[in-house]
Design brief:
Elements (H helix, E strand, L loop, with lengths): L10 E11 L3 E10 L5 E10 L3 E8 L4 E8 L1 H5 L6 E4 L2 E3 L5 H13 L7 E7 L8 E8 L20 E6 H10 L5 H16 L1
Parallel strand pairs: 4-9
Antiparallel strand pairs: 1-2, 2-3, 4-5, 4-7, 5-6, 5-10, 8-9
Length: 199
């Protein structure tokens, strides 16, 4: 995690305990925080570290289509999603790569499309109250000719991913209806809707 724990003079990290290091790493952090009135107080929080990630929206502006995926997500299922099958923009962890290299790898594994130039959009913390992950957002043009494989993810990693090509209006309609409710995907589709207005 960076920047280091001494970069904010109003924060003193007192203790960090690893609670779990199975799938990813869960830490309990005890720290002192100096509030705006100058008083110090002791706090305790837990932070889940799964590494940083990247996501991308593939857009065919001529046909006004996008490429998304559908896969089972245990946390969403446990929190009341009817079947746990989320429609999402392709994404993945960096796994030691820079964000652009990682998203090129992930999009080909998940969708079978090999992208040309990609556009970096921004980086966001998706759930900063409990998860350390920072996600780099990208967009790229695509066409049917860019399909080089079936996609579906990496079977050895337990991935079973359905590839969806949707009209942009259809995808935005699914956001409005609540069928698409993954945060990164909603952000990218709203970006695409705004871009379409200004093109």
């Amino acid at each position: 995690m960076s920047p280091g724990p001494d970069s904010n003079p109003n924060v003193r990290i007192e203790r960090v305990d690893v609670l779990s290091d199975s799938w990813y790493t869960l830490r309990r952090v005890e720290f002192d925080y100096r509030s705006a009135n100058g008083e110090w107080a002791r706090h305790q929080r837990e932070a889940y570290d799964r590494g940083n990630g990247a996501t991308i929206l593939l857009v065919d502006w001529e046909r006004e289509t996008v490429v998304l995926t559908r896969q089972f997500r245990v946390p969403a299922y446990l929190n009341g999603h009817p079947d746990g099958m989320l429609i999402e923009a392709p994404a993945g962890l960096l796994d030691g790569d820079d964000p652009e290299s990682a998203i090129r790898r992930e999009v080909e594994e998940e969708t079978g499309y090999r992208v040309g130039s990609v556009t970096y959009l921004f980086e966001l913390f998706m759930s900063p109250g409990s998860v350390t992950e920072r996600v780099a957002f990208f967009a790229a043009d695509y066409s049917p000719d860019d399909k080089v494989a079936d996609g579906g993810g990496v079977a050895d990693e337990g991935e079973d991913i359905e590839v969806l090509e949707l009209g942009l209006d259809d995808a935005l309609g699914r956001v409005a209806s609540g069928e698409i409710n993954d945060g990164k995907t909603v952000l990218l589709l709203q970006w695409a809707a705004q871009q379409r207005i200004t093109r």
